[in-house]
Amino acid sequence: MTVVASGQNAAAERVATWVKSLGQSAGADTTLRFAPSTSNSIDITHANPSGLAQFLAGRRTRLSTLLHDAEQYATARRTARALASKISELWEERGIDVGYLAAGVANWRAVHEGKSEPVSAPIMLGRITLTKHVDADDYDLQLVGRATVSPAFVRQFEADHDAKVDVKAVDAAAYSIARFDPARGMDALRHQMAEVPGVVVGHRLLLSTFSELMDPADPAKLTGSHPVIEALIRHDLSEKQAKSAADSKASEALANLVAAKPGNAAAKPETQKPAETAKDEAAKTSEAKSDEGKPAEEGGSRLRRVRNILKDSTRPRKQAGAPEEPSTRKVHTGSSTLAKSSDERDPEDELYLLDADESQSKMLDYIAAGESVAINAAAGTGATQTALNAAALLAAQGKRVLVVAEQRSAAEEFVQLFNEQLDAASLLLEPNEDPEQLRTLLTKAILRNEKATEPQLGSMFKRLRESRHALHEHVKSLHSVRSRWGCSPYQAMQELARLSALEPAPSTTVRLKRSVLDSMGQRGHVAAQLKRAAQLGAYSKEHTTSPWHGAPLRNAEATEQALNLASGLGRDLPILHEHMEKIAKQSQIRLEDSYDKWGDQLQLLVAVRGSLDKFESDIFEGDIDDLIAATATSAWRREHGVEMGSIVRSRLRKIAKEYVRPGMHVADLQAALQAVSVQRDAWRAIATSQRNPQVPGGLLDVEAGYHDAGARIDKLAGMLPPALGSRLREMPIAELLDTIAALVDRREDLGELPERTLISEQLTEAGLGDLLDDFAEREIDADAVDSELELAWWQSVLDAMISGDDFLAMNDGSKLEKIEADYRLADGAHIASGPQRIRWALSRNWKAALADHRAGSRALRDMLKSGAPSIAGLLQLGAPLANSLTPVIVSAPLLLGSALPEDAEFDAVILLEANYLALREVLDALRRSSQVIAIGDEMLGGPKRFEVSVDPTARVIEHKQDRSALSALNKVLVSGSLSTVYRGIDEGLVEQLSTTYYDNSISRLPMAVNISGNSPLLRSEYVPDATGSLANSEDGVQTTAAEVARVVDLVFEHFKNQGRESLAVIASNRSHASAIAEAIRVQLPNHKYAMDYLRSKQEPFVVTTMDRLIGLRRDAVIFAWGYGRTPHGKTLHEFGALSRVGGEQLFVAAMTRSRSRMTLVSSLLPSDVDLNRVYRGARQFFELFGRVEAGDSGVSAMRNPRFDPLVSDLARRLRERGAIVAEDYRGVLDLSAHVFDSADSGIRPLAVVYDGTEHYAELTVRERSRLRPEFFEKHGWRYVPLWTIDVFTDPGAVTERLAKALQLKAPASAATTEDSSLRSSVAAARPVSARDVTTEPAPKEKTGLLKSAKSKQDPKAGAASEVSGEEPAEGNEAKAPEAPAAGESKPSTPAPVPASQATEQPESEK
């Protein structure tokens, strides 16, 4: 037990020590240390009795009614002005009410921490309102509610005197009559304290500022076991140890340097401890540092060495492989989770009260998993929206959420927005609890839960999933690299567009088989072969028309042999021809016209000669069919159906034998007669006379010559191109002779033929035969080979990828547009259903709590019917019941101790604007929840200490800057940033802030109003010749009359022209703000119309300074610089707080207070000052004012703009039509296009977004298909989505559609109108910067032949081929795509949103 107690004491002491190191954020406690004076209070103890009675009765009473004495009234009025300002300041900035009537003051002395100190404590406090009277220089006072005995007085008195105060008795005495009677209350208290020595109770009525600020960092309530608090303590301890170690290293390094000085006789190596020397040297070094900037003396080099060594020794060095320091470890309070994108998240898992972009959704994923996070949200990035979503998300999970907001406006805005979506789901803690108001709120919450119905969203979720999947897969398919070919469809389209822009453009229509594409690999070797073939003349008409072209001759020996054969035939064939003609003439037959038929004729002549040797010549005269039958066997006759008697057969056989020549014996008479019959028919077919056949002499010699030449022809045919060689025997004799002669004449073609043959065979075997034929047909030269091959390859690959991908093959622009429209509607409905889904979740939790916690439900019913509802009573109902009614409680940090029970716990705490919250102030909130969510922006400034008293002598003691909760939690929690600015009025200003202060982490989507270059929403007003008096030598000229007058004019101009917009004037210093406010007051009688705007309760007009901007936001802002020249025209380089530490935060805060427009007013230009002498926020102001005054947009030109050939082609076409076009506009839009007078004509500029770019693919479907289109449409653009398939296949139609949206005139003549089915071949230009937009026309385009792969094929057939693995028919792949007929409709393109406003006609109808 002793060990445990000791450990607990050590832990408590550790926490107490850490809390003490955080310091105090408030000044003196006026509830215990109140020293009344005319400067800090108004004494109405002896006020006019009738006025005092009216005031104590709770009626509104003028200050002048209470105090009739002129001198007293004048003093009280000055104090009242200070009190009203302080009450308003602390209410708005701290959320605490400090305006009170103090009835009675008790005084005594007590010993605190060994010192005797006086105690002066107000006894009874009654809340008052103190407001300026409308029509007079007077103030209205009213006592609100019931005065109560000060709890601080009671606690301190009982602690100091060990006595009890009967609070009820004092209260009863004070209200013993119809109104508040403080005298009776004081008398009752005096009676109780009659026995207590040293206590004096004075009867005084004082109006002043009081606030019982319970310590939010009471060590007794904190515990080191809380994960976040423990992490903060551990981090601070680690930092302190690191600093101590660094200081030790610095001292050691300095000591070593001193010891190493030459001539230092006192220095002892290694063993001597140079402590004193180090101290002396450190002092000298400090003196040297204070003289920095002075010319270096002889020792200057040595001093620099000292500083460098100190710097190096204190720089932390992380060793390789060293474990992470404890100070850098993040504390995790939730389940392990990875934030998903909206594409990966199931819609049913998304539960948002309001819309959310990707950076916000990422942090909401962490929050939903119970993780503690620090969210860095620059002004305008959606901090409040994210906080609302986080609170609603946690509430739907059945959790209780505490929202801490120091600024009253932020708290009220949060509650208002939250309850607009979820009736009575949040409540705002007030300094004085109102039971009736709480009763009303709880009743509304119960009605909300009872009326809630379950939303039926199944079909909507289904549509959302399907459309999102289709859009996601479309872009994925478009950009997915196919490993088979190492490219994506989009890359193929880009390459094809690039090829079409060449001069001249390639135009092959050959498509390669997939097996060929797969086997080609690197195309360089193939291109080299094709180019070498071109150099050898493989594609020239001179060579392709040669009879040797295509001959399979692979070496010189083969070519020599082929040439010898051709030469021999060229010599012998004419001779053979003469002999054949002579034989034909003698035989009286017609000579056939081919070599093979010569052989048939020679064979016939030889056969006839054989028959004539056996028979008489007249055997050929008559019909011998009966003789054949008579000499045949009986089986032959039966087979042929011949019936012949024996007598007839005998007679006919006798006749047949009479035809046989004497002395000849014919063994088979029938066969011989059959041969004669065949020969007779063949002879008659070629005979030129009626005589019987005769055969001339020398036939056998001619036949031998014929066979010899035929053998050589056959051998030569095998050496010739197959198409030619196979025809030699069949071609006409004249052609054969000419061919042989041509072969001999073109013998020079044989020189390079073997190499050409080898290359052609290799390429043909590789599947490129069709490409070779196409090259030869078009006589492609060597320089064009590369581009032609690339075109064939890329187009073939694109065909293959499209045919094998359902999302590319089945979608065109119109289908994608419809899918995107469906997605936009479904996703919008999904987000809009969030409040209903959350209400249903609360209702479901409510009904479950009623069933499971019957005692709690009865207690709730009793409390609402007869009891006095309270926050404590609500929390005692139990978490399930209370959390289903009002799960979100909003409070200022300083109210938590008094408004919530000490043991009240929450599931999560959200710190709004955590950069303004001091870490010490939020410890009470942190201890109540394990999950902490901090949202804010450190560049808007940090926490400020405050003083409750208005006494000018009571000021917060100057200490080091308090650490903000955001900066502390950023180091120990998972942190993230919101990246998109939605409230920034000027892109250049956002870029300046992002570059200078946010490490380029925030951006602003472009607005159409900025298309001209400089934003009309950010204006500058230069006031020349403005001078002013010098306030003091340190502050310079803080205000000038000329600038004040110009600001006043701008204020009243705003009220007159834009009176519906709220306005604030922000001055750089208090002197300038006071001068402007006074000038407006003086001029107000001349502008009666402005009174209504000045009296507005909703965002009233204010004149303030940069250090009073917490919670301030207005539609319009006038920023008044104030600083000017002296009467002598001299400019002093002292610009107050902007030039000092913290000036950057002041500048950022001032520049981000406007929602719609801002005007910068200054009497100094950047050229009037030496910018090298201007620092921090002041320098940033001059840079901003200078560029706005010069009309510069402030948006830097992109160094490496994205280049896309397809987009560049569209841009060129639009410029030719007269549009002003910028490519890659602001790095967001692929094209921005507008007409010259877009502002006057009312024609919206086009925001063109193209689905083919990598930037588009990096966005989620929600961003690219809904969030950004909605933003562009809302901010003046006409959003136009373009689809790659349309831009690629039909750029002319897309251009026409964009031109129609801009109301551009049609081309001057039809001759300039291109066939929209063809992509033009123009030189590709680099992207144009937004700053260099020009309307000059680009060079006139020339027609190329790049065509669509998709519109010329059957996707189903292609898909079937892909699945089956079969190659498409060779002939089909080589066919060129046909241009659409004149009457055919061209592929449709998506219309701008809404689609109904951009219906297009086919170009043929225009």
TrEMBL record:
Basic and acidic residues composition bias: residue spans: 270-301
MF terms (GO), sorted A to Z: helicase activity
Disordered, as annotated region: 261-348, 1308-1406
Keywords: ATP-binding, Helicase, Hydrolase, Nucleotide-binding
Composition bias type Polar residues, residue spans: 1396-1406
Name the record gives this protein: DNA helicase
Taxonomic classification: Bacteria, Bacillati, Actinomycetota, Actinomycetes, Micrococcales
Feature: compositional bias, Low complexity: 1318-1332
Species assigned in the record: Glutamicibacter mishrai
